[in-house]
Amino acid sequence: MKEQEIRNLYEAYQQVYETPEVSEEKETVDEAMSSYDRNRKRAAQRAAERNAARDRGQTGNVPGVGYVSPRRERETYTDESGQERHKSGARMPKNEEVDLFDTILEYLVAEGYADTNENALVIMANMSEDWRQSIVEEQTRKIEVTPDNGKPYLRFATPKKIRELQSNPNIQVREPELKGV
């Protein structure tokens, strides 16, 4: 088999047998890892070192670390296959993001600002950033999601996404408790 076929087979095997909550991968350099992936991984590790120096209050030229700017850096990288990875090489879980485009489009039609999606698109193209932001804040809520594995996490979701999550019998959805109120 060719090296690329072996790598693809290995990645497919990893996706089938890897559990999302326990994704520990070896810290050693994998022989099948491309030079691109090795360089991206090392760059993420260096960013983590600079972030640690920044957290200690060190900026400027720090011995053993290099130049540290006041701005934090990403400690993740994207490998050749497009998979987001942690500086250790472990796969990062995919975050579901609120689709702002659909949220705003649905709001404009539901609230009567537009009678069709095409008219809503025209309004969206000309709306101010303040109005757009107010719609997003009004239409998204912070919820706590607890999947079967029992590890709850917080996320923002639209009413449509909340209904979708609630229809799944393996997931519990609730409003998070406000602390200190």
Q: Give the strand order, joined by hyphens, for the main sheet.
A: 6-5-7
Determine Rg (CA atoms, Å).
22 Å
Total count of domains: 2
Overall 3D shape: extended
Tell me the strand percentage band: 5-15%
Secondary-structure content class: alpha+beta
Mean pLDDT: 75
Percentage of helical residues?
A: 40-55%
Series of H and E elements: HHEEEEHHHEEHE
Q: Termini distance?
A: 62 Å
What is the count of β-strands?
A: 7
Task: Count helical runs.
Answer: 6
**Which residues sit in consecutive blocks of at least 5 with pLDDT less than 50?**
19-29
Biggest sheet character: 3 strands, antiparallel
Describe it.
This protein is α+β, with helices and mostly antiparallel strands and 181 residues long. The protein has 2 domains: 3-86, no CATH class; 100-174, no CATH class. The chain has helices at residues 3-17, 35-55, 100-110, 117-126, 129-139, 159-166; strands at residues 60-62, 66-68, 76-78, 84-86, 141-146, 153-157, 172-174. A hairpin with a 5-residue loop joins strand 3 (76-78) and strand 4 (84-86). The protein is extended and about 60 Å long. Residues 19-29 have low confidence and may be disordered.
How is this fold's topology laid out?
Elements: H1 3-17, H2 35-55, E1 60-62, E2 66-68, E3 76-78, E4 84-86, H3 100-110, H4 117-126, H5 129-139, E5 141-146, E6 153-157, H6 159-166, E7 172-174
Helix pairs in contact: 3-4, 3-5
